[in-house]
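Exercise 7. Predict the joint structure of the components listed below.
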Amino acid sequence: MSDTPFRQVTIVGLGLLGGSIGHAVQAFLPGTTVVGWDADAGVRAQAAELGLAHRIAESAETAAQGSDLVIFCVPVGAMDAAARAIAPGLSKDALVSDVGSSKETVAAALAEALPGHHVIPAHPVAGTERSGPDAGFATLFRNRWCIVTPPADADPALSARLVAFWEALGARVETMDAAHHDKVLAVTSHLPHLIAYTIVGTASDLEQVTQSEVIKYSAGGFRDFTRIAASDPTMWRDVFLSNKDAVLEMLQRFTEDLTELQKAIRKGDGDVLFDHFTRTRAIRRGIIEMGQDDARPDFGRSDHNGAKESAG
Amino acid sequence: MSDTPFRQVTIVGLGLLGGSIGHAVQAFLPGTTVVGWDADAGVRAQAAELGLAHRIAESAETAAQGSDLVIFCVPVGAMDAAARAIAPGLSKDALVSDVGSSKETVAAALAEALPGHHVIPAHPVAGTERSGPDAGFATLFRNRWCIVTPPADADPALSARLVAFWEALGARVETMDAAHHDKVLAVTSHLPHLIAYTIVGTASDLEQVTQSEVIKYSAGGFRDFTRIAASDPTMWRDVFLSNKDAVLEMLQRFTEDLTELQKAIRKGDGDVLFDHFTRTRAIRRGIIEMGQDDARPDFGRSDHNGAKESAG
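Solution:
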């Protein structure tokens, strides 16, 4: 595999993910030219100033011109419109990919909007609670997983180049089919976000406990939820709508389990609670053993390090 | 206020909290003698080795002898037995306190077990996912809130000494009544823990997604829940049983809110989702503005710093 799997990449959508790809390609793939495009003129101007790309395209129609890789970094619900907008400049040989958090819907939307083109969706499991062009940075993908979901008829050579691209940006790449991706992410990401958004909303609606008390004593556990619930609202609205079936299925299971614990609390059945709480420790141990959460300073970004106590 | 609000403190229960108090008193209140006691002989031996106290008492009956402060650092459900065990050695002038996460039940249990004694419960909102005598450290309480809940008939001078004690250990102290404490903590701590325990259990029971996949892709949001759900099972069982009414009330509200979002997903109502997700960002901003979560290196402990990305 060559050091520059793609000669020129167009990034469509210059928020946290798109901006980070722009920084990362310039930092780690010096042989690749980066072209940026965003439907929002203000974002384009900001991106130019921030140097997120070698150049910002002058129009959607020309954005994909000359690129052998086009990555859509827009909310899942905006993929279709973005694909149609850049279609006129898109070469038949170019590879089309994306960074969306749900994959079956995106794969279908891109394939329909760009018939006859090569589409291999991907999902870098990376992000922060910040959003916007100025939130991006070159090392966002370092040591993070990127899941590539090639359709059954995808060209293996193109898949391999996409894998090489993400590896060059520092990611660890896994390949799976889109439907399985959507189930895995429904439980590891989408359901946790839905729960976090819910509980933060519940807390802000209380009458007997003030919002400032909620904030003040948030270190008791609530704080971790607020971090998750600060993610980009548009992105997450689209994730839930596009991965509806898997999310609703996981939610159904979660609700059943919660009802069981609720019943145990109401009945004062300490054994049920104790057994459940003991069982969940095993998963945590697995995460620590797999190095998915540790104190290595370069695992996270130093400017985002912080306390992670959980206090009663 | 003197530099040593208490001449001798007995710590009953030498786990994470008790051990940390032992370290902290020795570090920050050099004029105070620390006596340790734990019902478990193995823990007593370990505590002696770790130097959690100046001396480990030889029996429960003598543990409180000569102390003007006795702090119970045992699970909420074990307060009663621990109080009765040390009662023989307890002076009528000594102040009795604790570190439990629910306060109305504890206040009642201690008052009943130790009639005629001064009882002022407290709750340092601090902890880590680790437990046991070797998990403690002197700076656990630094810049963390400690909520003191004096009963209506408490001696104000004793309250003031307890406040001074916690401030000397680095905590920021607030005073409120026990019932209000229990409502505040039900939402900022107990409900988040219950939710986290639930979702981690749900994830580990799936058939279509393997446990190793859940662990591998946990950076998408799930990881933060596992950290919370790794807390001590005995402690948390007791918290839910002892703060049952407040927890069930918060849980009821949470379930209503979750049902609303579930319905929005099922109906494909993006506006409801977007509005909700936008609203929850305000709480997060409040937490950052109040300095309850930031990048100052001394806010958390350096050995527990780590990544806090939330990734889709």
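Discussion. Chain B has two domains: 8-176, 181-293.
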